Amino acid sequence: MSAGRYLTMGVTLAIGLASGALADDRLPAPSFWDPNLHLERPDLSALRAIRFLTDDDYPPLDFALSDGSLVGFNVEIARAICEELHIGCTIQARRWDTLIDSLETGKGDAVIASISITAATRAQIDFTQPYYKTPARFATRKDSPLADTTPASLAGKTVGVIAGSAHQSFLATFFPAAIGKPYPNFPALHAALSKGEVDAVFADGLTLAVWLAGQESADCCIFKGGPYIESRYFGEGVGIAVRKEDADLRRAMDWALARLAAKGAYAEIYTKYFPVGFF
Predict the structure, then answer these.
(1) Cα–Cα dist 201/213, whole Å
(2) What are the residues facing 54 on neighbouring strands?
(3) pTM: predicted TM-score of the whole model, two decimal places
(4) What CATH number belongs to 11-133+236-273?
(5) DSSP summary character for residue 239
(6) Does residue 28 have a cis bond before it (omega within 30 degrees)?
(7) Which end of the chain is more exposed for a tag (fewer CB within 10 A), N or C?
(8) What pLDDT, on the 0 to 100 scale, is given for residue 32?
């Protein structure tokens, strides 16, 4: 399963993000790498190129333009890794539900397609360190009287959540005095917040960030409080998947990702595709 695979945004918005039209340098990018940890670059002299596999219908993470070329956050991270390693790079799109099987059967060397690191996926494949996580966030209307989103301030307030989600469970556990109102999907949740039917929503931060940056939100709303990253509820994050026997490749990509973070290249890609940061 992916992290936030239910994200539903139009390709028009994603193309705008890819062009940098909405970039906002004021928003800091998260970092998932310890700057004091010095990784060694493994020898990849026997590898001529990294064959990345991805999806092509999950904007702004990975999607195809009208000419068929692949773009998106995941795609640019893959290309940046290859540049950092000074190695050839190919990126091929495959249907989402075939990606892990394609990796295991040798049709690619790595999958960069927002696959969540879980016990189930670890049983099949290996992962780099997370290159992004999907925290939970509260969002309110800009004209909301709520000063913050603490358990005390949300007592008696109505908070929209996706029915059956980890966010609904987290809200019930740690914000017991808030009134959770379940919605069947993100469009319904977004509409409820836009119309002021709820005091706040609590949901996947990445999906909320893309909506907040898009035209559908009409600049109505903002993040407030958080982020919340408890792995028991919201997972370990998203890594690049490799076969279990390809430890050198995994270590090399971990090295490259840490280098991209240290040089500011990761932050540049992040702010390009997520002008409203989800952290």
Answers:
(1) 16
(2) 93
(3) 0.87
(4) 3.40.190.10
(5) -
(6) no
(7) N
(8) 87
- The token duo for 162 is 């996706």
As a whole number, the mean pLDDT across the chain is 89
Mean pLDDT of 131-141: 97
Number of DSSP helices (H) and strands (E) in the chain, helices first:
10, 13
CA atoms within 13 A on the CB side of 232: 3
Q: What integer is the mean pLDDT of 213-239?
A: 95
Contact 208, 201 (CB under 8 A): yes
Answer whether 11-133+236-273 and 136-234 agree in fold.
Answer: yes
Specify whether the CB–CB gap between 160 and 187 falls below 8 A: no
Cα diameter, the chain: 62
Share of the chain above pLDDT 90, in %: 82
Sketch the domain layout of the chain as residue ranges: 11-133+236-273, 136-234
Rounded Cα gap, residues 169 and 146, in angstroms: 22
Order of strands across the sheet that contains 57-58: 57-58, 62-64, 70-71
Transcribe 133-177 into DSSP letters: ---EEEEEETT---S---TTTTTT-EEEEETTSHHHHHHHHH-TT
For the stretch 163-189, pLDDT in tens is: 999 999 999 999 999 999 999 999 999
* pLDDT the model gives residue 33: 85
Q: Which amino acid is at 253?
A: M
And the tokens for 190? 């977004």
Superfamily in which the 136-234 domain is placed by CATH: Periplasmic binding protein-like II (3.40.190.10)
User: What digits encode the pLDDT tens for the residues 14-33?
Assistant: 333 333 333 333 457 888 88
Given a contact cutoff of 8 angstroms between Cβ atoms, the answer to whether 72 and 60 are in contact is yes
